Amino acid sequence: MPELPEVEAVCRKLRERAPGSRITSAKVFRCAPATLEESARGRTIRAVDRLGKHILLRLSGGVTLHTHLRMSGNLFAIPDHRLHGAGARVVLGLSHGAGIVLEDPRALARMEPAETEVIDRKLAAGLGPEPLSPAFTLDWFREESRVSRQPAKLFLMDQTRVAGLGNIYAAESLYRARVNPRKLMNALSPAKVDSLHGEIVAVLRDALQSAIFAYGGPGKFAEAESFPIAVYGREGEPCDRCGRVIRRIAQGGRSTYFCPGCQR
Fold first, then answer.
1. With the CA atoms of 107, 74, 127 and 254 taken in that order, what torsion angle do they form, in degrees rounded to the nearest 10?
2. Which of 46, 146, 167, 223 is paired with 232 by a 20 to 30 Å CA distance?
3. Rounded CA gap, 123 and 136, in Å?
4. HSE (CB half, 13 Å, CA atoms) of 14?
5. Per-residue pLDDT tens for 108-153?
6. CA distance 155 to 162
7. Active site residues
8. Which CATH number is 4-126 given?
9. What is residue 205's three-state secondary structure?
C-alpha cells in the first residue's frame, strides 16, 4: 500500500509535468464520480500538494481534485493521454497532449472534485501532524502518548494521531524502537516513547529516499530494495537482530509483524 514516502514520490513526479497544464479532457471509467469530467475540464493545474496520504491537484477556480491511492492505486503522467493502459480509472488529457492517469487494477482508489477551501478544512480537522513536518515534535509526541490507551501499532496507524504512516512503516518503526506493537502507548517508558519518535522520523526519511529512487511511473510501485525491511511480511523468518522467529498477529483488521524477542 502506498504510504507517505510513496505518495510523496508520486507528487514529486507529477510536479515535473503537471503544473501550468490545462485540462482539455477528463474521462472517468471508475473510481471517481461522473461530475469530475465537467468539474475538471478547462481548468489549469496550479499545483500538486500532499497531506498525509492524500494527493491534491490544485486547479484554477478554487477546485481541487482530491485523490487517495488506497491499497493499490497509482497516479502518473504519460506522454499521450490516448495511450493509457487497461487499468486506467481516470484519464485527464492535458493541453500539450500528455495526460495524467489514475490507475488501479483493484479499483479501490478514489479521485473526487471538491472546493479547495472545503477539502483543506476537512483534512486539517481529520489529520494529525506528519512525521517529517515541524509539527511532529518530541514534546507533542510525548503528550499524545501519555494520554493514549491505544496499542502502539494502532496509535501509529491512526491518521488523526500521525498522518501518513501505514502498515509497513509503522511495523518497521516499532521494530527499530524495540516496542511491542500490543503495548499501550501510555504504558511505554519515557525512553521507549522518545526512541519511537526518533525511529518514525528515521524510517520515513530512509523510505522516502528509496521511494524517490525506485518510483517507476506507470504500473505498480517498484520495489525499494535499498530500504531494509526488518519485519514486515517476514512471518516465520528469523529476526536479523536476535534470531527469534518473526510473528504475525491481527490488529485492527490488519496484519502486524514483530519480533517477540526484540520487541517487549
1. 60
2. 146
3. 17
4. 27
5. 999 999 999 999 999 999 999 999 999 999 999 999 999 999 999 9
6. 8
7. 2-3, 53, 254
8. 3.20.190.10
9. helix
253: pLDDT confidence band, cut at 50, 70 and 90? very high
Q: Output the CA–CA distances (angstroms, integers) from residue 39 to 78, 112, 185, in the order listed.
A: 21, 10, 44
Q: How far apart are CA 121 and CA 127, in angstroms?
A: 10
**pTM score of the predicted model:** 0.90
Query: Domain map of the chain by residue range?
Result: 4-126, 138-258
CATH of 138-258, one of 1.10.220.30, 2.30.30.100, 3.40.190.10, 1.10.8.50: 1.10.8.50
Residues 175 and 162: their CA atoms lie apart, in Å, by 17
Q: 60 by DSSP, 3-state: which? A: coil
Separation CA 67–CA 75 (nearest Å): 9
Name the amino acid, one letter, at 208. Answer: L
C-alpha cell at 123: 483534512
Who contacts 74 (Cβ-Cβ below 8 Å, separation ≥6)? 2, 10, 102, 103, 104, 109, 218, 219, 220, 221
Q: What amino acid is encoded at 77 in this protein?
A: A
